[in-house]
Write a structure and sequence with these properties.
The chain is of the alpha+beta class. Helices cover about 55% and strands about 20% of the residues. It contains 26 helices and 22 strands. The protein has a seven-stranded mixed β-sheet with strand order 10-22-21-20-11-18-19, with helices on both faces. Strands 2-1-3-9-4-7 form a six-stranded antiparallel β-sheet, with no helix packed on it. Strand 1 and strand 2 form a beta hairpin. The radius of gyration is 33 Å and the shape is elongated. About 0% of the residues have low confidence.
């Protein structure tokens, strides 16, 4: 019983694809039957192929005709296909019925591809919705009660326990914890939050229980605003798409009107007989059909997509392959994009008789009991050293951690915390620490007993290929490269300097990033955005081309983006731009060839020098020619 259900669900979700496959299958069987002389069977199979493959195009074409009073290529294809079939039956040249079915099959495949592209917005919204829990734990008359998020009201007090997602924006009433806000604000390190601080829905609570008061409606939370921004940005049609739609409708209108005139006027103007007139009119519809023009684009783009996939570049649709070649400005997220998003030990300095290894081992002995990202980074840096975990370890959130190692007290933390246990902090280290902190690094002091052993600088690792990628993009002619981040100014400028970016926008919320992208589009038109987090989703959707990191990227970023770098290799952005520019060149060449064939065939038809078979051969031949030309991009 389960198999028919799955089959039914697949058919509903992929109706256009199933229709195209059935059309192609029936077309093949009909052609085979004609080849064997089984006319009865062929006349059963081929009409079925017409109906199954052409239903959606006919419905859209007729809807556009009656509701918008416009003619489009969908209707033109149906008219041309039916005209070819009718002429084939009339003259008993049954191969013309096959030609009509091929036209319908091409449009059925195109409709299936368009359906997949249109489903992106819905998937993006569903992924965003999954970031927040469905219920919240509300404190009511001293008792905890779980209610749906939608029922939360301003003033409600909610409880968030260790490791749970914050259900809605609010203000902390009691408790202390660190929150991982990287997905929302892009901050590379967990942020310490205590009474009076604002927390955001979708952020992950650390090791402390929190009591939070709802201070705004749930639908006004930051994550809900992100959802609406993604939805709005993805539903806005770009100018290029509007131009294509206008061109398609105009072309179809001209060809249909010309076909009608050609089918009615010649007997009165030039004395043609009606058989010749109708023959020429139908030939005109066939040769003027824009199949070669359509094939000038899609095979090229699909070849470029396949080429990119082999190199770890996932283009979600062909339009983005074209757009990436036109990009004039690129905006990069910082955390997880230009950096790995993983904090690590940047540098260790020791004092007196101690070595760097001594400092790392001592710090690791107490940090091994901590779940804090900084502690994990220190333990990872000391993984090759020989040390033993401390005992009686106690952590003071936001300050540091103490424990007993080798019968001596070990203190690891910030300067204020460590000063409570030592006599003084070495002046030479204080100057160094100050310069590190100005660069946006986090500094940990390490002491044993009453003596400072040294300091450890923690930083988010810059991707090794980031600087080379920025240099390459500048050489390719990208006019403006900027960095957008929710992190602080010092960290942002430090990373920007390391990779060669001059323009920096720091401490941004998701809507701020969106505003920057819009301003860049006003100045540079075609703008790319490279990001990995949920906070990048609105900007990725608004950008002309959204590029997401495949490994470190969040599900929402991957769904929203148009291009995914599957191996997180930034240098592939330049490869994608090169593919995009090649695709533009090949498409332009193919359009010239396609239009040239159409013009020649139309002139030949008007002058009476070609018959319908020759017209079909020219029409199909030009389609094959531009298709093969497009396949060059596979190299």
């Amino acid at each position: 019983m389960l198999y028919p259900q799955r089959l039914g669900q697949f058919t509903r979700e992929h109706a256009d694809t199933v229709a195209a496959l059935l059309c192609g299958f029936l077309l093949f069987l009909g052609w085979f039957a004609l080849h064997l002389g089984w006319l009865g069977l062929a006349f059963l199979l081929l009409p079925a192929a017409y109906v199954i493959g052409g239903y959606e195009s006919a419905r859209e074409g007729l809807t556009t005709l009656f509701k918008e009073k416009e003619l489009d290529v969908d209707l033109l294809m149906i008219v041309a296909a039916i005209g070819a079939a009718s002429l084939g039956l009339w003259r008993r040249e049954y191969h013309l019925i096959i030609d009509g079915a091929i036209l319908i099959l091409i449009f059925a495949i195109s409709g299936a591809l368009e359906g997949y592209a249109m489903a992106r917005t819905e998937r993006s919204i569903r992924s965003l919705m999954s970031l927040t829990p469905d219920t919240a734990r509300v404190l009511h008359q001293g008792r905890e009660e779980e209610i749906p998020i939608s029922q939360l009201k301003v003033g409600d007090e909610i409880i968030v326990k260790l490791g749970e997602l914050i259900p809605t924006d609010g203000i902390i009433l009691s408790g202390y914890s660190t929150l991982n806000q990287a997905a929302i604000t892009g901050e590379s390190l967990p942020v310490e939050k205590t009474v009076g601080a604002e927390v955001f829905a979708g952020t992950l609570n650390g090791y402390g229980a929190l009591q939070i008061q709802v201070h705004k409606p749930a639908q006004s939370s930051l994550i809900q605003r992100v959802i609406r921004l993604v939805e709005q940005a993805q539903t806005e049609a770009p100018p290029s798409q509007e131009f294509i739609d206008r061109f398609e409708k105009g072309y179809a209108k001209v060809i249909v009107v010309a076909g009608i005139l050609l089918a009615t006027l010649p007997p009165f103007l030039w004395g043609w007989d009606w058989e010749t007139t109708i023959y020429r009119a139908l030939t005109f519809l066939v040769v003027a059909s824009p199949c070669a023009l359509m094939a000038a684009i899609m095979p090229t783009l699909l070849s470029g997509i396949a080429n990119g996939a082999r190199q770890g570049i996932l283009f979600k649709n062909g339009a983005q392959l074209e757009k990436i070649g036109k990009v004039r400005a690129i905006a990069f997220d910082k955390t997880g994009t230009l950096t790995t998003g993983q904090v690590q030990v940047f540098q260790t300095i020791s004092v007196s008789e101690y070595t760097k290894d001594d400092v790392l081992k001592t710090a690791a002995s107490v940090e091994s009991s901590s779940e804090h990202p900084i502690g994990k980074a220190i333990v990872q840096a000391a993984s090759d050293l020989d040390w033993v975990g401390a005992i009686e370890v106690q952590a003071l959130p936001g300050q540091g951690i103490v424990g007993i190692s080798q019968e001596q007290q070990v203190i690891v933390g910030n300067a204020i915390f460590v000063q409570q246990y030592v006599t003084n902090l070495p002046e030479e280290l204080q100057e160094l620490v100050q310069s590190w902190e100005q660069e946006g690094k986090t500094v940990v002091w390490v002491a044993r007993g009453a003596e400072v052993m040294g300091v450890i600088a923690i930083a988010d690792e810059v991707r090794s290929q980031a600087a080379a990628t920025i240099t390459r993009l500048k050489k390719l002619g990208v006019e403006q490269i900027v960095m957008l981040t929710g992190d602080n100014e010092e960290t942002a400028h430090s990373v920007a300097k390391a990779v060669g970016i001059d323009q920096v926008y720091a401490q941004l919320l998701p809507e701020d990033k969106l505003d920057v992208i819009r301003r860049l589009q006003q100045q540079y038109q075609t703008v790319a955005m490279v990001g990995d987090g949920i906070n990048d989703a609105p900007a990725l959707a608004q950008a002309s081309v959204g590029i997401a990191m495949g490994i470190s990227g969040s599900d929402v970023a991957l769904e929203t983006a148009d291009i995914v770098l599957m191996a997180d290799r930034l240098e592939k952005i330049a490869v994608a731009m090169h593919l995009g520019r090649r695709s533009q060149l090949i498409v332009k060449q193919n359009i010239v060839v396609a239009l040239g064939f159409i013009i020649l065939l139309i002139l030949g038809n008007f002058l009476g020098n070609i018959n319908l078979p020759i017209g079909v051969i020219g029409h199909e031949g030009s389609t094959v020619l531009v298709t093969l030309s497009g396949l060059r991009l596979l190299k």
